[in-house]
Every structure is written in C-alpha cells, then in structure tokens.
Amino acid sequence: KELLLQNFDVNENKIIVINPPVDTKKFKKKHIKSSKFVIGSLSRFVERKNFINIIKALEYLHQTLKVDFIYHIA
C-alpha cells in the first residue's frame, strides 16, 4: 500500500491490502520430513526486491546461527 501511495497519485481509501491466508496445519512438525528448512523467493530479479540483503541474511543464519537450509530463487 505504501509503495503505491509513494509512487502514484491514488486515493488511499481505494487501496485494500489482502494478505494471503496461511494454513498453519501444514506447518506442524509431523509434516516436516527434513531437518533442513526450505526457503524460497519467487519474484522478478530487480534491485527493489533486495535479494542482496536476503542472501546476506541467509549467510548470517548459516554461518553464525548454524541454521541448515536450502534456498531457491525463481
């Protein structure tokens, strides 16, 4: 919403943000078969998406906190 308001001349009252629902039952421990987390990004590869900071954060998770994960970019 903020991105639209900053970049376009639009009426704030006409913008509705609908977040996708998450089925938390799918994330219960009994459904996880791997000890690795799977993390992914699905987006256009543009500077505004800030993939550089994502990779830095993932490096921190792996090096400092010893989190074991697989990362996919699409």
Descriptive report:
- This protein is α+β, with helices and mostly antiparallel strands and 74 residues long.
- It is 26% helix and 14% strand.
- It has helices at 2-7, 51-63; strands spanning 37-41, 69-73.
- Strands 1-2 form a two-stranded parallel ribbon.
- It is extended and about 45 Å long.
- The chain starts with a helix and ends with a strand.
- List the secondary-structure elements in sequence, H or E: HEHE
What structural class is derived from the secondary structure elements? alpha+beta
Major β-sheet annotation: 2 strands, parallel
| Average pLDDT over all residues | 81
Distance between the termini: 24 Å
- Proportion of beta-strand residues: 5-15%
The main sheet orders its strands as: 1-2
Number of helices: 2
Shape: extended
Compute the CA-based radius of gyration. Answer: 17 Å
Q: Care to count the β-strands?
A: 2
What's the short story on this structure?
This protein is α+β, with helices and mostly antiparallel strands. The chain has helices at residues 2-7, 51-63, and strands spanning 37-41, 69-73. Helix 2 (51-63) links the parallel strand 1 and strand 2.
List keywords for this structure.
single chain; 74 residues; alpha+beta; two-stranded parallel sheet; 2 helices
